[in-house]
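During the second year of the project, the team shifted from modelling isolated chains to modelling whole assemblies. The rationale, set out in the original proposal, was that interfaces cannot be judged from single-chain predictions alone. As a representative example for this report, we include one of the complexes processed in the last quarter. Its constituent sequences, exactly as entered into the pipeline, are reproduced here:
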Amino acid sequence: MRKVVLVFLSTLLVIGGVLGPLVQAAPMEELKIAGQFGLVYAPLMVAKARGIFERHGLKPVWKEYGSGGAVREALISGEVDVGFMGIPPFLIGWDKGCEWKIACGFVIVPIGLVTYDPNIKSLKDFKPEDKIAVPSPGSIQHILLAMAAEKELGDPNALDNNIVAMAHPDGAAALISKKGIKAHFTTPPYLFEELSQPGFHLIVDDVTIFGHPFNFNVGVASERFHDRRPAAYSSFVNAIGEAMAWINCNKEEAAKLLAPEFGLTPEKTLTYLNWEGMNYTSAPYGLMGFGEFMAKAGYIKRAPASLEEIAFENVLAIVGSRAGGPSEIEKIQY
Amino acid sequence: MVKETRHLKKEKNKTLNQALFIVGALIGWELLARTGWFPPLLFPKMSEVFTQLIAEIVNGEILRRLAFSLYIILWGLGLAVLTSAVVTTVAMLSPLVSAWVQALMAIMHPLPGIAILPIIILWLGTGSRSIVAVIWFSSIWPLIANLHTGLRSVPTTQIEVGRNLGLKGIALVRSILIPGAFPYILTGLRVGWARAWQASVAAEMVFGASGGEGGLGWFIYKKRFFMEIPSVFGGMVIIILIGLLVERLCFEGVEVRTVRRWGMTSE
Amino acid sequence: MKQDQLVVESLSKRFYVGDREINALDKIDFKVKNGEFINLIGPSGCGKSTLLRCIAGFEKPTGGRVILNGQEISGPGVERMMVFQNFEQLFPWYTVQENIMFALKVTGRAVSRAERKEITGAYLKLVGLTGFADLYPHQLSGGMKQRVAIARALSVRPRILLMDEPFGSLDAMTRLTLQEELIRIWGETKVTILFVTHNIEEAIMLGDRIVVLDANPGRVKAIIANQLARPRSPEAKEFNLIWEQIHTLLGFKNPEQTKAEKNVTQLFGDERELSLLPHL
Ligand SMILES: Nc1ncnc2c1ncn2[C@@H]1O[C@H](COP(=O)(O)OP(=O)(O)OP(=O)(O)O)[C@@H](O)[C@H]1O
Ligand SMILES: [Mg+2]
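Output from the structure prediction step:
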């Protein structure tokens, strides 16, 4: 019964979203957006459900992909105008000559390496046959693992032979059933679910590795889109900001809205939204740190010399450039 | 004899023709890529693909991946050959089992090996074992089907000649049934090999094998995520080359020396 | 007097197809002497092949037995080699020579390769195929294939050669040539031959005795001694007598009429075969 009501309500919302602007007869600009599935993409779901993009004069076309790599390919092939991906996949594309930049930060979430094996307390305890699942090679989890390996084991590639590429849900299922993999480098809600299993524990987390929080995803747009459609570009940035703010100000309502999407109860969704470390923000965090490491470890040919090379002016404006030494916000980019 | 040389000449002409076409297509590709109409990220120059391929060969990675792919295929295919031999033997002995096998074949044959991957992961976990299982599953049905029909197609007369000469059991199977079914066995191996090759690459691309022991599929998968598109094409070139090489050198060689020489083809 | 080599003793064979019972052979009795050439003739479906296959050991009789040199046979054996009508009886993956060498090898008739080669050469010469040793079966004519089959069967030195319409699929000319050669080979090897045929002339041309079988159930209708002097010719007066005798035995009511047909076929130079299908 509840479901029926929900479906009815969301249908109304969709109809409202489509018809509302028609009534206003505002000129709508189509925007194709590539996202993925998961708690991280809650702002996109909220924007969709609440017609936020429409209010900013955009007619969004949503496309969901299975991995950051796929989102990146969609952007390169011109299938979508903007997309969300981790900083490492973004940098790999940038390094290969993709003409794109970061349009906004997108969500900070805790990321962690989880195992069920009580004997594995640090990276040193991994034996050659212990498999570690990451979503894909070159993903943020893979790069974090390499960073940790460099710190703890002295070689960023020390665990390369241990990694297995698995989508988050497959990885979580494999870890929870203790089949095939020993550890899983993952994000919420899988991280929360795994950690709530008895005996499962965190080996290392993102903040320990990186030193401070960083954007799990960034919004990426091609320079072409940014240059040719400036109005659509800023509407997009503003709409994302509005969605973020709405979640932060209306957690309970957001949990109710998102729960059916994830197949969770509103209570559980709320717990997840309020989990320590979750931060729905579009501010830039840690945009430069990955580049330096990835260049040093050989994943890309060179690191961006300045933020200007990888971020659009709205991002640059937020970070600023303090005379006489970096400001706090400049510091957290590294 | 005359007919044979003429046949060979015709074959040679055909090969030459095909080679010319391929070279032409490659040059066309290169020229098209050089026009700059397409982003080089999506459509790299052929020359770049080959330089990258050579680099990957020199640094040893692609050959290591290839060796691993072949190793794992040999396992999967080898197990499939063994299983199909056992299954077919049992099916030959018992009409009931034969009916089961036929039913199973009808159900399973159209199922691409890769489709069972999720289940295999649940049962066997990730890693090479699962890929071997997928290869096994992909190649076993054409092997059984061909072995089954092959053994059935051996003329009773030949079997009776064998029995008349005092052959029984394994000896009869080895010296009459297997050579008699050979055209089918060869077809089975051919299809099985092709399917095994496809399955290994596909399986690794879907769940990415794992770093230390990935084959060519993993190579392509990894290169894709690091956006080394010329290397992705390079991996494909290797896959094509190996496919051609095995077909031309291995299977065609065997076919010419056996089935065709014996006049056991319909050609 | 030669001794009885093969004794077929009240041999019966029934087949069950569904709930139908086919009485293929019903108490067949006859004896064959060492070195004899016996022809078996009878309408289609009278059990000729079944009889031969029982003697060869491919079929288990449902009653009676087959005794070879005082021993009851219980399965296939190399001392009773079968030559089939079917051209597929050669192994296509072996050359002519290898087909024979294979038989020599598996029967242990010759141990060394050189010896096998030598014997093979001798038998190829016997059937007139010297020079064709390296051809594969698919490169041979039907007649050549049957020659190879005969050579292969003889090479393992059977006591009895069982031939089930070996020339049945050949054209008339080849058939005549092969009949003559078979007589020669029989003379040279002194092997006992049981030869099934459909063709009355062939039976008369070849056999020392002709066993005429009856259909439904398969029974021995008569055994005709054929004393015609060799080499035989269809022009001989006695030939016609035996022909008519068999013809009547096979159940053709009006010998004159079929005779007229025969003359017509002769007029056209067609093969002198006569269909034995009763309804014709
Ligand atoms: N394997 C079998 N199963 C059932 N019935 C059989 C089998 N083999 C032969 N028969 C039956 O036995 C009878 C004799 O068959 P057989 O082949 O011996 O005849 P034939 O005299 O050789 O005929 P033809 O001259 O046409 O070759 C036929 O009625 C046939 O249907
Ligand atoms: Mg017959």
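The beta strands of chain A are 29-35, 58-64, 82-85, 100-106, 112-115, 132-134, 163-165, 183-186, 201-205, 217-222. Chain A is about 45% helix and 15% strand.
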